[in-house]
Amino acid sequence: MRLIKEISQMKTWRENARKNGIRIALVPTMGYFHEGHLALMKKAKTLADKVVVSIFVNPIQFGPREDFSSYPRDLERDAAMAQEIGVDVIFTPEARDMYPEGYQTYVEVTELSKPLCGARRPGHFKGVATVCLKLFNIVRPHVAIFGLKDYQQFLVIKRLVKDLNLDVEIVGHPIVREKDGLAMSSRNVYLSEEERKSAVCLYKALCLAKEKVKAGQRNPEALQKELEEFVLSHPYTKIDYIEFRDPETLEEVKEISKPTLLALAVFVGKARLIDNMIIEP
């Protein structure tokens, strides 16, 4: 496995690979791997000849009061885990190289970025779209794999690729969960033992909604209130949002009459956790 830091070296590697007809998969990450990341890498290996994993804690997708400086980092640990999976290249560029002095170009997917996390984290998806476009240009993968825990991000990147006619296939991978249902996340490391017990309420809320809809509930407003009460019955929780949205456009849903995205963001202690599920009526 190669560890590449320089953008020029990454470009040289990808050019040689493409000249030899090698199919490249990219797994973009911010590092501090868990089983969810490893599942993306395993999926990538089934879709391409060579797998590149980028590790870059992207400063432009964090707000001024968010956890950029405290976000967990451990390159040595990540490299060992990726090597065990059989990753071919880890690309770890420096922020000063990705955004050198005088940098002033950004890309924004306007409508899909507005609701949910976009409404609560202004500029977040502009940062995500910009870094992904840069990574696609540097690595030039044939396919890129994204986890569906970040469902809105997945839609934003798919739209970016479609609108800008990028020659890369975007593949979503189902959410990977702990045994009790908690979605795997690098931010789970922020949870104390007691907070960790409460954190499973996100998944339980999704399952509760699924049961209620199966039993005939079609009113998203009424169900939202019920889910809010359920989540807040767990200690250390503060709701950022619980919303029902169209799974393709992210527009608000007035009635649960077709497959509907239930997305939620909840603070458990200082950790902001997100989760989602497509609810079938």
Automatic annotation (TrEMBL):
EC number(s) on file: 6.3.2.1
Domain of life: Bacteria
Organism of origin: Thermodesulfatator autotrophicus
Top-rank EC class of the record's enzyme: ligase
Main location: cytoplasm
Alphabetically ordered keywords of this record: ATP-binding, Cytoplasm, Ligase, Nucleotide-binding, Pantothenate biosynthesis
Family of the protein in this entry: Belongs to the pantothenate synthetase family.
Protein location: Cytoplasm
Signal peptide location: none
The gene coding this protein: panC
GO molecular function per UniProt: ATP binding; pantoate-beta-alanine ligase activity
Reaction(s) the record says it catalyses: (R)-pantoate + beta-alanine + ATP = (R)-pantothenate + AMP + diphosphate + H(+)
Any single GO CC term annotated in Swiss-Prot or TrEMBL for this entry: cytosol
Additional notes on this entry: The reaction proceeds by a bi uni uni bi ping pong mechanism.
Catalytic residues, chain numbering: 37
Binding site for (R)-pantoate: 61, 153
Subunit field text: Homodimer.
Record-listed beta-alanine binding positions: 61
One Pfam assignment: Pantoate_ligase
Described purpose of this protein according to its UniProt entry: Catalyzes the condensation of pantoate with beta-alanine in an ATP-dependent reaction via a pantoyl-adenylate intermediate.
Binding site for ATP: 30-37, 147-150, 176, 184-187
Protein name: Pantothenate synthetase
